[in-house]
Write a structure and sequence with these properties.
heterodimer; A: 343 residues; alpha/beta; Rossmann fold; Dihydrodipicolinate Reductase, domain 2; 8-stranded mixed β-sheet; 11 helices; globular; B: 392 residues; two-stranded parallel ribbon; 15 helices
Chain lengths: 343, 392
């Protein structure tokens, strides 16, 4: 099934919060796109969402869903393989919410299968479409502050009230993919890889704090390979145990670029003296800026489906998955595991 | 001597971890925490605390989770819409009050029940008048708790908790962020009472409460001895070696305080009307020109009215209002009105404060980790030196 840019039919797999509050409002207002159905094993939730957004149909099983051009896959990453087998077999393009797959092996299998079936894949790493990320990338490409010397990335805060019950998918290691590195770290890693156009990486040190199979903190020291072979030291921390410096610092020979995790944030320029000297972009409304980024990622995916079924590893965030897996494997091989009372 | 068993509901919140830490160190008290899921329980378990997972809002689960408690400390707060929060937290209180036997309940309310900018003359202890949804929600829960307790055998102490500062607390973060804002000035040089409390003093008060149960009722909970804003700000800036925040002059402070207290004294209806009027005044004339129907209506109306009447009753007043509004908003510095509060009315829970120098070091360490990017390079990873090539 090929995407006709004039009337792309989209199916929604998953009727959770990310579909309701992020994707559906954008899809419902995107020119040339119509949402054909929503499918969720919780049929009541699927029907409620369909009713709220006046969607034509709601289903409890993917097998019952009629053909569409594109499917948004927004179910827990640990439950995706079977669904993707069905989606790809039916020739539907798939746009997956991050993280793409729980393991590198799964990721590579999905990519190979999609190429065999000649369908396109995309990933919802929305921060690629933030204005601040694009600005930072342009500044790094142009070498405005000189060559990169160090890259720092941090995200997270001590988790307090989650507002969720015991059945929350993030409280299940299998369903969530493992922990904070998968949930929040995927965005941070991809932002860094996008800005610096990372070709490869090396992990020298990785420490994780894990309990009952759920990882609550990861700190990584290593390097990323840029500019066709030049290594740049990397330090990154994601945590749900401690408050962490939130943002990315691209330290160059003549100053620093700093940007955060919000869509409305600016790209800040710091001098060698450590003081801010300029601010590019930034907007007042986080909601509007985030909405614009989601809209841009959907527009890009829908348009690309119309052009070609060929896609690159970049389009699925393969390198991001590989990096995350390398961290988990590193931890499993060497780093200390911490167990607390009741583990 | 038998130990007192305490369960902390909402142990993963703002004060829960500090309570667990403090009470765990007392041999007279056996404490555990309750979280709703493994994610909020994880950090506490990693720190070595005893945590039970479950939903206390379910009466059957509440009995399992808290059945062995002598004292239940309710720190729980939920997220979501005001309606959802109200339902969830009332359910929790209902379940706590339904526990069998006789227990002691410590319920955390908030100084927000007195309103954002406290005026003790308008906001007596017995009948506070909150002006924000959070304060109204907290007051509603207090009243609901007392109603439910009538049918139970439990006793309760309700604590109207002040603004909490210390490592990991929002007020310390606010203060430290203020030091980076060049335009920030501390009203009255911080001489006003802060209605704040260090997180360690919260723990000290709770421990005192558990070991020496007072007469049941409602109490305020602030620093003992009470601290001014200058003391709170200086404690935090000294902890991280930052410069003292500059003072706002007294004349300016009086003007700002009069404005905020005036705003706090207005009714909700008056606020809504004035905000709509302020929004209307921001509409440019081009807005009217861009709306054909509105423009037509305006032209017909103006053509109908006599010019002299129009000038005297409409245009003159509009011009004066606009000038007054723009002068007022431009000259009023942006400032959180709780910095201009009077001291909260009513009884303070008696206890002995325990803040010491180690708490300052904790703030310094916490601040470095969240504020300094270079902290990402030296987190806590052991030096292992294994390369990816070797790994593969």
């Amino acid at each position: 099934m090929r995407a006709d840019v004039r009337s792309v039919r989209v199916g929604l797999l998953g009727a959770g919060n990310v579909v309701e509050s992020i994707h559906l409002p954008v899809l419902a207002s995107l020119d040339g796109v119509s949402v054909a159905w929503v499918c969720d094993t919780d049929t009541a939730r699927a029907r409620a969402l369909a009713s709220t957004y006046s969607l034509p149909r709601a289903f409890g099983s993917l097998d019952d869903c009629p053909d569409v051009d594109v499917v948004l896959v927004a179910i827990p990453v640990g439950a995706r393989r079977g669904a993707l087998e069905t989606i790809l077999a039916r020739g539907w393009h798939a746009f997956c919410e991050k993280p793409f797959a729980p393991t590198l092996e799964d990721h590579e299998w999905i990519v190979a299968e999609a190429r065999r079936r000649k369908v396109r894949l995309g990933i919802g790493l929305v921060r690629r479409h933030y204005a601040s990320v694009k600005t930072a990338r342009e500044l790094v490409d142009a070498g405005v502050l000189g060559p990169l010397e160090v890259i720092l990335g941090g995200e997270g805060a001590r988790v307090r009230h989650t507002g969720r019950g015991g059945d929350w998918y993030q409280a299940n290691a299998h369903a969530s993919g493992g922990g904070v590195l998968f949930e929040a770290g995927a965005h941070l890693v991809d932002q860094i890889f996008t800005i610096a156009r990372v070709d490869d990486y090396r992990i020298d040190r990785c420490s994780q704090r894990v309990l009952k199979g759920i990882e609550f903190e990861t700190s990584v020291r290593g390097s990323v390979i840029v500019d066709g072979g030049r290594p740049v030291p990397l330090g990154m921390v994601v945590s749900q145990v401690s408050d962490v410096y939130g943002g990315i610092v691209m330290r160059c020979a003549n100053g620093e670029l700093r940007l955060g995790a919000t869509a409305s944030g600016a790209t800040e320029i710091y001098g060698r003296h450590g003081r801010i000297t300029g601010r590019l972009g930034g907007s007042a409304s986080e909601g509007a800026a985030f909405n614009a980024a989601v809209r841009a990622e959907w527009r890009e995916f829908v348009d690309s489906c119309a052009r070609s079924v060929e896609f690159s590893d970049w389009d699925t965030g393969l390198r991001t998955t590989a990096f995350i897996e390398a961290c988990y494997r590193f931890n499993g091989a060497r780093a200390e595991r911490v167990s607390g009372v009741g583990s | 001597m038998s130990t007192i068993t305490c369960g902390i509901v909402g142990a993963g919140g703002q004060v829960g971890p500090a309570l667990l830490g403090s009470l765990s160190g007392d041999p007279r008290i056996q404490v555990f925490g309750i979280c709703r899921n493994e994610v909020s329980a994880g950090p506490l378990r990693l720190e070595g605390y005893d945590i039970r997972c479950g939903s206390v809002a379910d009466p059957a689960a509440a009995s399992d989770l808290l059945g062995d408690c002598d004292v239940v400390i309710n720190c729980a707060a939920t997220s979501g819409t005001p309606a959802k929060k109200s339902v969830a937290e009332r359910s929790l209180i209902h379940a706590l009050c339904g526990l069998p036997g006789r227990r002691r309940v410590i319920h955390f309310s908030s100084v927000a029940v007195y309103g954002t900018c406290i005026d003790a003359g308008r906001n007596p202890f017995e009948r506070p008048r909150p002006d924000q949804p959070y304060g109204r929600h907290k007051l509603d829960l207090e009243r609901y708790l007392w109603r439910r307790l009538r049918a139970s055998g439990h006793e309760a102490v309700v604590l109207r908790l002040g603004h909490v500062y210390g490592a990991g607390q929002w007020l310390s973060r606010f203060v430290l962020d203020a030091t980076r804002e060049p335009r920030f000035r501390l009203p009255f040089d911080g001489r006003l009472p802060s209605n704040a409390i260090h997180v360690k003093n919260v723990s000290a008060a709770i421990r005192s409460l558990i070991l020496d149960w007072p007469r049941p009722g409602t109490y305020n909970l602030f620093d003992a001895p009470a601290s001014t804003w200058r003391q709170v700000f200086d404690w935090n800036t000294n902890a991280v070696g930052a410069s003292r925040v500059p003072a706002m002059g007294d004349a300016e402070s009086e003007r700002v305080a009069a404005y905020h207290r005036g705003q706090a004294a207005r009714s909700l209806a008056t606020h809504v009307a004035s905000e709509i009027a302020a929004w209307t005044r921001t509409l440019p004339g081009s807005f009217i020109a861009a709306c054909p129907a509105v423009k037509t209506l305006g032209i017909v109306t103006l053509a109908t009215l006599r010019q002299e009447w129009l000038e005297r009753h409409i245009l003159k007043r509009y011009k004066v209002m606009a000038a007054r509004a723009s002068a007022g908003t431009a000259a009023m510095p942006a400032l959180d009105s709780w910095l201009l509060s009077e001291g909260a009315p009513g009884a303070q829970l008696p206890y002995r404060g325990e803040v010491d120098i180690e708490d300052a070091a904790a703030v310094a360490g916490w601040h470095t980790r969240y504020a300094e990017p270079d902290a990402l390079l030296n987190w806590d990873a052991p030096s292992l030196g294994v390369s990816r090539i070797a790994l593969n």
